[in-house]
Amino acid sequence: MSQLFTQPALLVLDVQKGFDDPYWGKRNNLQAENSIQTLLTEWRKRDWTIIYSQHLSLDPQSPLYYKNANQTDFMDIVSPLPGEVIMQKNVNSAFIGTQLESYLKSNQIKSVVITGLSTQHCVSTTTRMSSNLGFHTFLVSDATAAFEITDHTGKRHTPDDIHQFELAALHKEFATILKTDEVITQLS
């Protein structure tokens, strides 16, 4: 855990108004944005790096379609402040089509703490890539949220199940899974 506290970057992935759209179905962890806000407060107090990703979908049917400015805007509770970095993307990884990797490396940031929406999409993909690119990767389980999905057989899976399955798949192999209070405790 000592790797976490060498001024890690806080990644806030796709916490955008379009995720409030009924298109996504049921969601778990309705307090995720509050947990992200808690972490943002800590990072801002310490003047550590905060990086946002903003998903700008190329699919006109998506609530995050790039031409729907009000839907692609960040949720007010976690809105970036002037000077905080925003990486815009149109795929599930914050590392693809952005300068995220080069930004982290040029600023000698070796650890990242990942938060955001949604666990089964951008959070999972970015976490896997972060680890594969050699960053010490921490995922904050209560600062992320998942949506229900229907699988290839037509079976519906609850957002809580999806969230837990994704965290289980990422745990140890790709990231250290922590809760917000554990991160705050380690920072104190």
TrEMBL record:
Residue ranges annotated for the Isochorismatase-like domain, each copy included: 9-181
Record's keyword terms, sorted: Hydrolase
Cited Pfam families: Isochorismatase
Similarity annotation: Belongs to the isochorismatase family.
Name used for this protein in its record: Isochorismatase family protein
Source organism of the structure: Metabacillus halosaccharovorans
